[in-house]
Design brief:
Helix content: 40-55%
GO molecular function, one term: glycosyltransferase activity
Strand content: 15-25%
Radius of gyration: 21 Å
CATH architecture of the largest domain: 3-Layer(aba) Sandwich
Keywords: Transferase
Pfam families: Glyco_trans_4_4, Glycos_transf_1
CATH topology of the largest domain: Rossmann fold
Shape: globular
Protein name: Glycosyl transferase group 1
InterPro entries: Glyco_trans_1, Glyco_trans_4-like_N
Structural class: alpha/beta
Length: 385
């Protein structure tokens, strides 16, 4: 790769093959000719995939607080050592706790530094109800200070949605913000046909499965039963409280209605697994974090030709608020969710029409092939290529 700019992406908390970091950004940059390195938790020292050179900063393991914090610090220290050794032209950070590392790199090298803000971090900290309120407030204040420093020091801030971009522009006075959405790869999702009318599941949710999503689902499933209707649900992805969830499913007598699969599904198999259902389901609660973040899975459902039932929250309205490819309902309103689900399950023609409209929107605009051009343009601007 003689003559190629060397760039380094860094995360000490994400999985090695994270969809945004590896499959979207790093893979696209490597394909564009950049010598692309990714520092990430990895069980082996190094490997290469799709032209991306991965280097281990440690492993993600024991979650007991004291040991977890100690290992997290070790991963950050290893990331700093590898970052300096690689001597890159540009460093791209993916975790807010790496902002101090970025400030150090900015002060001690001539490299460009980007912070990729995946979500509203201060709002997310306020949702950590397992922490005392005073601790949450202190951490949120400290996070805001770090993000303000990043906004005013780094060469660019990347966000995954316009809500967080607006936060950086208004609150943190960032001088360069670029929004790069997590839209789906056309070649990965469009090769799958729309779900069949006899698909084994009625509804599907994939990705990280938090307790509050499941609590809404249980309430909706029970609302459907009260009306003499039943739906078959598929949940698959990381479930931090899988034991509680399975026990709750059995306690409520929903074991014949809800399948919960907490096993990791490889990136290239996600689309085929999702289309085992007729309808996408996104039960986001009305919390501060979700006033800014767009659910990535919405566009994956659309790409697969599936209508979606989701919470009526501001970030999603510009994309599906007209009701042509999704039904938006008040958050946490189990009866409204049940109404929407019954309407779609009872009308295959409506499902097909809404699914076709969603797929057309993804093909035209909401896809990674188009979105990646903004990433490549930013790199070209910062590196002068």
């Amino acid at each position: 790769m003689t003559g190629a700019y060397r760039i380094v992406h860094i995360s000490t908390v994400h999985q090695p093959f994270d969809q945004r970091i590896f499959h979207r950004e790093c893979a696209s940059l490597a394909a564009a000719g950049y010598e692309t390195h990714l520092l990430v938790p990895l069980p082996v020292t190094a490997l290469e995939r799709q032209g991306v050179y991965l280097h281990s900063v440690g492993v993600l393991a024991d979650q007991r607080l004291g040991l977890a914090l100690k290992r997290r610090w070790r991963r950050m220290r290893q990331a700093a050592l590898l970052a300096r050794q690689l001597d890159a032209a540009l460093y791209h950070l993916h975790d807010p706790e790496l902002i101090p590392l970025g400030l150090w790199l900015k002060a001690t090298t001539s490299a460009r530094v980007i912070f990729d803000c995946h979500e509203n971090n201060t709002a997310y900290l306020h949702q950590k109800h397992q922490m005392p309120p005073v601790v949450r407030s202190g951490l949120s204040w400290g996070m805001a200070m770090l993000e303000r420093l990043a906004a005013r020091t780094f060469d660019a801030i990347i966000t995954a949605d316009r809500g967080v971009a607006d936060l950086y522009l208004r609150r943190f006075r960032a001088h360069r913000v670029v929004t790069i959405h997590n839209f789906p790869h056309l070649d990965l999702f469009l090769q799958q046909p729309p779900p069949a009318d006899d698909a084994p599941f009625d509804l599907v949710y994939h990705g990280t499965i938090p307790r509050y999503h499941l609590e809404v689902t249980f309430a909706v499933a029970e609302a459907l039963r009260r009306r003499g209707r039943r739906a078959c649900w598929l949940f698959f992805g990381k479930c931090p409280e899988a034991a509680w969830a399975q026990a709750e499913i059995e306690r409520r007598g929903l074991q014949d209605d809800i399948v919960l699969d907490a096993n990791l599904v490889p990136h290239e198999q996600v689309a085929a697994r999702v289309r085992q259902a007729k309808i996408g389901f996104i039960p986001l609660p009305n919390l501060p974090k979700f006033q800014h973040n767009i659910p990535t899975k919405l566009f994956e459902f659309m790409a697969l030709g599936m209508p979606t039932v989701l919470s009526n929250l501001p970030p999603s309205r510009p994309f599906v608020g007209d009701g042509q490819c999704a039904i938006m309902v008040p958050p946490d309103d189990s009866e409204a969710y049940a109404d929407a689900i019954i309407r779609l399950l009872s009308d295959p023609a409506l499902r097909h029409a809404m699914g076709a409209e969603g797929r057309a929107r993804v093909i035209k605009e909401f896809n990674w092939q188009r979105e990646s051009q903004y990433l490549l343009a930013l790199y070209a601007e910062l590196l002068g290529s």
